């Protein structure tokens, strides 16, 4: 029988080192194009997946976000503008949840990096739909 242990986040990933380039968001989802983005998945389980995501400045538009996304901003700024015009701004140390079904624009600036937690099956299905499951 295998013993199960806690899985710590890697300090180098939290600090933005050793992140791997990842496939880009579809062009039609980027009102302000992002030059590149990177990530490191540090846990992928049956129910949840956690990763560090880093992005150059730009924005992604979501219509009916297909998963709940729990976010901790590590650096930079996230400006979420909902379709009804509400603007929420988050910076280093802030935590927030982008709920399933949310629609709006997610702007990332200033060396943006976040620690995120998703429902695994919902994340995988969305990534496949968007063509970023590589």
TrEMBL record:
InterPro entries: RmlC-like_jellyroll, RmlC_Cupin_sf, UGlyAH_Cupin_dom. Pfam families: Cupin_3. Residues 65-109 form the (S)-ureidoglycine aminohydrolase cupin domain. This is Cupin domain-containing protein.
